[in-house]
């Protein structure tokens, strides 16, 4: 997917309410204002093996990643396109074997971090035409204790005490 629209819309700050987008010219009903590819995404565990990990197409007989055997693709094209991000998970999936069970949230965060790292300085990706990922606010101080505990559990397999040494280097 390419970024579309953009012409005739702008970002603005509304004091006390946060950020928004607004139009700067008239649009007709049904006209596309803005579309862009996702910055990062991940297939949920429950859909694994039923949908392609890259394009989310539902298909019988998806092909497995030959290494980890836990990512599934329509074809070699989808596998190749996902490899930039999957290669990092793939080595962990292989190392942890059947103990591999991070939540989708953790996998998504990893994919976001890798995507942010691989974007060249000052260069906006197709999904950052309006807003840079680094411009988003964390809101960590507003997180309740229950959410904090769930997050800590999610992250614990990756902390130095429990992760295999080679995954940390
Ligand atoms: Zn696919
Ligand atoms: Zn793999």
From TrEMBL:
GO biological-process terms attached to the record: methylation
Gene3D superfamilies, per the entry: 1.10.220.160, 6.10.140.2220
Region feature (Disordered): 148-169
Reactions that this protein is recorded to catalyse: L-lysyl(4)-[histone H3] + 3 S-adenosyl-L-methionine = N(6),N(6),N(6)-trimethyl-L-lysyl(4)-[histone H3] + 3 S-adenosyl-L-homocysteine + 3 H(+)
Keywords carried by this UniProt record: Metal-binding, Methyltransferase, S-adenosyl-L-methionine, Transferase, Zinc, Zinc-finger
Enzyme Commission identifier(s): 2.1.1.354
One term under GO cellular component: nucleus
MF GO annotations: histone H3K4 trimethyltransferase activity; zinc ion binding
InterPro entries the UniProt entry points to: H3K4_H4K5_MeTrfase, SET_dom_sf, Znf_MYND
Start and end residues of each MYND-type domain: 52-90
Protein name: [histone H3]-lysine(4) N-trimethyltransferase
Organism: Alosa alosa
Lineage: Eukaryota, Metazoa, Chordata, Craniata, Vertebrata
């Amino acid at each position: 997917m390419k970024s579309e629209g953009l012409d005739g819309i702008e970002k603005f700050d509304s004091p006390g309410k946060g950020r928004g987008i607004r139009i700067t010219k008239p649009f007709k009903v049904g006209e596309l204002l803005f579309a862009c590819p996702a910055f990062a995404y991940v297939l949920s565990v429950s859909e694994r093996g039923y949908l392609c990990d890259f394009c989310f197409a539902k298909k019988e007989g998806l092909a497995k990643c030959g290494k980890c055997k836990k990512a599934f693709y329509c074809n070699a094209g989808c596998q190749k396109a996902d490899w930039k991000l999957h290669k990092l998970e793939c080595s962990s999936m292989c190392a942890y074997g059947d103990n591999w069970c991070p939540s989708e949230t953790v996998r998504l965060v990893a994919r976001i971090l890798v995507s942010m790292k691989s974007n060249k300085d000052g260069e906006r990706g197709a999904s950052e035409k309006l807003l840079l990922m680094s411009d988003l606010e964390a809101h960590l101080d507003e997180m309740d204790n229950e959410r904090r505990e769930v997050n800590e559990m999610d992250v614990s397999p990756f902390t130095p005490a429990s992760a295999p040494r080679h995954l940390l280097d």
